[in-house]
Amino acid sequence: MRFFEVVIGTLFFSSLVFASGHTEHSSHGSTHWGYTGHTGPGNWGDLSPKYQMCKLGSSQSPIDIRYDDIVKTRALEEINFSYNRGAKSVINNGHTIQVNVEEGNSISIDGIRFELKQFHFHTPSENEIQGKSFPLEAHFVHISSDGKIAVVAVLFEEGRHNATLKKIWRKMPYRVGDTEDLELSSSYINMLLPRDKSYYRFSGSLTTPPCSEGVRWFVLKHYSKVSEQQVDDFLNIMHHENNRPIQPINARKIMN
User: Which residue of the set 95, 120, 122, 142 is catalytic?
Assistant: First the structure.
């Protein structure tokens, strides 16, 4: 399984594109972390010097998007989605179910092209809206040619069975570290996104160790659907919830 690892000063990308192995025992010797017990989110910052930002950072993700913290603009720039290639594999890395995509998918914003590397899922949602949690959240992880990171977050509300998730879930590996081939066309990937792609924007961090900051976050305002059974099926594979708790917004403002 190939790593994408980018270092921009202290911005360390390897935790977002996981390798195979038990939870995150990677070939790079990453410190073991998890979502429960002594390796859970409350202790991430103490597990390794590389993870100190998890407790010291001032612009950490996820956040609760509160209307009082929103700065209204005349019009945020539209995100130009260009998802024209399909998926190639799905991996259970012990932290999430991650879909790896073919090269050639991207978004463009701020005059920068960010290539889609993978997308993965958290249950319940990591980000919240006005204190409301959602049963599932997808993170589409993009990186520019010079190492900048942009994450598009899609929140799912309970409803009808999701056709794209059905195809992915059928291939979800039961064992940690296992990878399965996945034939998922670009049309199905696009179906995970709501039609209206307006968004909330803020500066944040990786939601997993090393919790590096400087990440562009775009949380879509409109939701996709997931059935209760599909959420249960995800939890049956993961055996635990996999969301980092809400982090303080501090001096940040959310752009709308």
Answer: 95
User: Taking a C-beta distance cutoff of 8 angstroms, is the pair 166, 230 a contact?
Assistant: yes
pTM here? Answer: 0.90
Digit-coded pLDDT (tens) for 195-214: 999 999 999 999 999 999 99
Contacts of 75 (CB under 8 A, 6+ apart): none
Specify whether 95 is catalytic. Answer: yes
The pLDDT tens digits of the residues spanning 47-86 come to: 999 999 999 999 999 999 999 999 988 889 999 999 999 9
Other beta carbons within 10 angstroms of residue 206's beta carbon come to 27
Torsion angle in degrees (nearest 10) through CA of 13, 17, 22, 23: 70
Question: Within 13 Å and on the Cβ side, how many CA atoms surround 64?
Answer: 10
- Which residues, 6 or more positions from 91, have their beta carbon under 8 angstroms from its beta carbon? 1, 18, 20, 97, 98, 100, 173, 177, 178, 179, 180
How far apart are the C-alpha atoms of 143 and 2, rounded to whole Å?
Answer: 15
Matching CATH number, 7-255, of 3.40.50.1240, 3.40.47.10, 3.30.365.10, 3.10.200.10:
3.10.200.10
